[in-house]
Design brief:
Layout: E1 2-7, H1 17-22, H2 28-39, H3 45-54, H4 61-69, H5 77-86, E2 89-98, H6 99-109, E3 113-122, E4 125-132, H7 139-151, E5 158-162, H8 168-171, E6 176-180, H9 184-187, E7 192-194, H10 201-208
Helix pairs in contact: 2-3, 4-6
Length: 209
C-alpha cells in the first residue's frame, strides 16, 4: 500500500482559508501577516492559530460555509488526486485550517479522509475559539505515524506534499517529501521541490521514484 498526504492551504487550495474569512471582517492584512510568520517558522503554530481565530469572532457560520465552498483550488488538483488513486495511493489531507473548507474540497477531489480543526460557534456565530486534530506544529507528523501503523504503510511508500513550516513534522515520516511553492524552511527539508502552481508535477515525481 502507498499513502499520499497533502496539506490544504496553499497546497491543494490556492491561498489561506483564514485570510478569505478574515477579509469579511476587515482583518485580512493582520491575519495574513501572522500566517506568513507561522509558515516561515518564526511563530509557534498553536499560538499563531489562536491569535488568528480570535480575530474571526462574530463572523456568522453561514458566511464561513459559503466562503469555504467556493475556495479556489490549485491548478491540477483534481487530476493529481485522480492520478494518485489510479496509481494505488490512499490520499489524505492534513490541514491546520478548518473542516468547513477541507470537507467539501475533499469530497469534490475524491480524497479518502481529511483531518483539520473546528471553529466553535454559539447560535451560528463564531466565538473566536478553535480546537481539533491539527492544532500544533507536531500534529501532522504524529497523525501520519498513526495512519501508517493503522494502514500498514512504510515510510518509503509515503509521499507528503506541503508548503510551510507546520508541514515539517510530516516530512520526517515520508520517504518522498515534496515542497510545493514552499517557504525556504520546508524546501530545505524536501527531497523534491515544485516551483510552479501545477499539482500535476506531483505525478511526475511519484512516477520517477
Amino acid at each position: 500500500m502507498k499513502l499520499a498526504v497533502f496539506d490544504f492551504d496553499s497546497t491543494l487550495m490556492d491561498g489561506e482559508t483564514i485570510d478569505f474569512l478574515a477579509a469579511q471582517l476587515g482583518f485580512e492584512e493582520q491575519v495574513a501577516a501572522i500566517t506568513h510568520e507561522a509558515m516561515e517558522g518564526r511563530l509557534d503554530f498553536f499560538n499563531a492559530l489562536q491569535q488568528r481565530v480570535k480575530l474571526l469572532k462574530g463572523l456568522e457560520m453561514s458566511s464561513v460555509d459559503e466562503i469555504c465552498k467556493s475556495l479556489p483550488l490549485i491548478n491540477g488538483a483534481k487530476d493529481t488526486i485522480d492520478g494518485l488513486k489510479n496509481r494505488g495511493y490512499t490520499v489524505v489531507c492534513f490541514s491546520g485550517g478548518f473542516r468547513n473548507a477541507t470537507a467539501p474540497a475533499s469530497e469534490y477531489l475524491g480524497i479518502d479522509a481529511d483531518f483539520s480543526n473546528t471553529l466553535y460557534d454559539i447560535d451560528g456565530v463564531l466565538t473566536g475559539e478553535v480546537g481539533g486534530e491539527m492544532m500544533f506544529g507536531s500534529s501532522k507528523g504524529e497523525l501520519l505515524t498513526r495512519l501508517q501503523s493503522l494502514l500498514g504503510i512504510e515510510i518509503k511508500n509515503t509521499v507528503a506534499i506541503g508548503d510551510g513550516a507546520n508541514d515539517l513534522s510530516m516530512f520526517v515520516y515520508a520517504g518522498t517529501k515534496i515542497a510545493f511553492c514552499a517557504k525556504p524552511i520546508l524546501r530545505e527539508a524536501a527531497t523534491h521541490c515544485i516551483d510552479i502552481k501545477d499539482l500535476r508535477k506531483v505525478l511526475e515525481i511519484v512516477d520517477s521514484i
